[in-house]
From TrEMBL:
Residues 12-66 form the HTH cro/C1-type domain. InterPro entries: Cro/C1-type_HTH, Lambda_DNA-bd_dom_sf, MLTR_LBD. Pfam families: HTH_3 (PF01381), MLTR_LBD (PF17765). GO terms for molecular function: DNA binding. It comes from the Bacteria. SMART domains: HTH_XRE (SM00530). This is Transcriptional regulator with XRE-family HTH domain.
Length: 270
């Protein structure tokens, strides 16, 4: 959203400083002269639309934040934001559904930039049966809040201190990358939840050779262990797609894989 009174130079300077780059470092990165960059930041020169988009790309500015920069420079926004229900995004929505369904019997879900649940496959619901506060399951569902809330999944996460630290650090990195104030407020909320008990070490057969931080969830089917991956759309030019991610959970051991297959078989038969 464009802030009244902010110039293009203000936006560029903020994002350059957020990336911890001096004018000289960024000028070298963007392959322009430091003098030219200084003139743009001071308002003494106005870049072309192509140059502005180039500078935003080199700074890693999110698509959502590039439109205000374009407006500040007197250009029309070029990055649309559509609902996932928009016909123009139908191919993307189909791709999401195919990925989620194809990942079964393992859990997978799609989230937006604020970790709001967009879609999930049928393997997710059985893992949420232990949530005490059903309000956490009412749309819009925030996945991080659901995971770390003391009345959510937190009491059922065997390695909660480790998993909590992983999620909070990931959120901090997202805030650094985007500067999103909603995420900053979410981080404050999650950090204020009661501190988990001391870490319970995994048994030797559950250290996963140190390759990833696992999610170890205590369920009616026993202790299930997962490793996760994140999938994003390549080269999106729509804000909604650029901010969408698919979180896929894979069984970290054979026992978890067999338990998930059994849960899926029971669900199909009933």
């Amino acid at each position: 959203m464009m802030v009244p009174g902010r110039s293009l130079g203000d936006y560029l300077r903020e994002w350059r400083q957020r990336r911890h780059l001096s004018q000289l470092e960024f000028a070298l990165e963007a392959e322009i002269s430091q003098r030219h960059l200084s003139f743009i930041e001071s308002g003494r020169a106005l870049p072309s639309r192509e140059m502005l988009i180039h500078l935003a790309e080199r700074l890693g500015v999110p698509l959502r934040e590039r439109n205000p920069m374009l407006l500040a420079a007197g250009f029309a926004p070029v990055f649309p934001e559509r609902s996932l229900e928009d016909p123009a995004l139908a191919p993307a929505r189909r791709a999401i559904d195919i990925i989620l369904k194809g990942h079964e019997p393992f859990p997978a879900l799609a989230i937006d930039r604020h970790w709001t649940l967009v879609a999930a496959n049928d393997a997710v619901a059985p893992l949420l049966s232990g949530v005490a506060d059903v309000a956490l399951l009412k749309p819009p569902v925030n996945v991080l809040r659901l995971s770390l809330h003391p009345d959510g999944l937190a009491p059922h996460i065997f390695n909660l201190p480790e998993w909590r630290a992983h999620l909070l650090e990931r959120l901090r990195q997202q805030i650094i990358a985007t500067g999103d104030p909603v995420l900053s407020d979410l981080l404050k909320e999650l950090s204020a939840y009661p501190a988990p008990a001391a870490h319970r070490p995994s048994s030797p057969d559950r250290d996963y050779a140190g390759i990833a931080v696992p999610l170890e969830l205590i369920t009616d089917a026993g202790r299930l262990s997962f490793i996760s991956t994140t999938t994003i759309f390549g080269t999106p030019v729509d804000i909604t797609l650029a901010e969408l991610a698919i979180e896929s959970l894979f069984p970290a051991d054979q026992a978890t894989a067999e338990a998930l297959k059994e849960m899926a078989a029971v669900a199909r038969s009933s």
